[in-house]
Amino acid sequence: MVNALVRGGLLQEALNIVQEMKSNGIPPNTVTYTAVIKGFSGNGNVKEAVQILNDMEGGETLPNLRTYNTVLRGCVQAGDYGEAQNIMNKLSQHNLQKDHSTVLSLLKLHVQQMQIKEAWSDFQELLNFPITIEPTIYTLLATGAALAKEEAITKEVLDKLSKRNDLTPLILREIQTIQSYKAKAVPNPQKTDRLYRWSEGHAVNWSLIPKGPVNMEICSGLGEWVINRCKKEQDKNWISLEQRYDRVLQTWSKMELQKITNLFVCCGEASAILKQDCFKNKLDAIFVNFPDPPHNEENNRLFNADFIKLVHQVLKAQGTIEVLTDDKHYYNIITREFTSSNLFSEHPTQNSNDPTYFDELEKSVGRTERFSTAFKKRN
Ligand SMILES: C[S@@+](CC[C@H](N)C(=O)[O-])C[C@H]1O[C@@H](n2cnc3c(N)ncnc32)[C@H](O)[C@@H]1O
């Protein structure tokens, strides 16, 4: 029951059941607790996940390595290094040995902090586990190492990666980009005016955005698509918007690596960001590639009636939005929401065919069906 609620995105309801069980003298087991923690962690709400963990530690059901790893993965997604350090201290206190999931999270956190030597040692530790390491982990580390001018590490990671025979065209292009990077001053994601973190109270500084069209990609993931568009359309300003900090940071790294100057990278939940007054009538075009489909019609759906109103609010007169998805059901919902809002008219799609990470992943397992739709703002 709790698992089903978490899978459906009904986290508060799942937590209520856990609390009800406790007050009825039936302590939830570790699996149930961990499922709820996973829901909050995966949703970017590490603080709530940690609160549940603390609650567990103070009660009868003890967390296990899986529980701690779940919070650690949440720390990676939210870029919460401080909380990750607390979790690592707890692992030592409870004499729990790291497994491959722990080490993988540490590697990602160290790259986020630009602690490349530590990340390199995590990587070597990871090689000792009987698992296949995703090519994206190699490129993540190699990118961080290249930006941090750790040339020997960059070369060694790329040499290892190039020997594999399971590389997608996107990864092969990434390898080339990293290899051709000419190091300059080491950039710092904490001290840049091109990366906005909503949770840290950052706001887009519009005075930094040059005159000209402003386009946005929402749900930008790892950023390949928007980086390509920035290169192709240099007369336009681009903003990428993504809720996961780890992915935002990868977009920022790609931007630095390729010396892109017409991109601003935003981290935060799309509705929360677009609600800000500073976005009103500011955008010429919005693109959304492969938004996460809802688990059911009503819950956790980005494209609902309120979001359509927000899109209308942030677009300039005649502004457009284009959505690409592989999910026919979601495509139908999105089309229905736009049409019934009466705020938009149908518009031809551009179908740029620029690659995205998710697109290539889906194609690699034979899922090739795509649905795209576009709308123009009615004034
Ligand atoms: C299926 S992935 C697609 C990513 C990318 N567009 C691609 O094609 O590779 C969906 C992305 O949307 C992000 N996302 C989902 N809901 C969001 C929201 N409400 N606000 C911002 N980002 C969101 C997720 O974190 C994830 O990175």
Automatic annotation (TrEMBL):
NCBIfam families: PPR. PROSITE patterns: PPR, SAM_MT_TRMB. It catalyses: guanosine(46) in tRNA + S-adenosyl-L-methionine = N(7)-methylguanosine(46) in tRNA + S-adenosyl-L-homocysteine. GO terms for molecular function: tRNA (guanine(46)-N7)-methyltransferase activity. Its EC number is 2.1.1.33. This is tRNA (guanine(46)-N(7))-methyltransferase. InterPro entries: PPR_rpt (IPR002885), SAM-dependent_MTases_sf (IPR029063), TPR-like_helical_dom_sf (IPR011990), tRNA_(Gua-N-7)_MeTrfase_Trmb (IPR003358). It holds the Pfam family PPR. Keywords: Methyltransferase, Repeat, S-adenosyl-L-methionine, Transferase, tRNA processing. The keyword Nucleotidyltransferase does not apply.
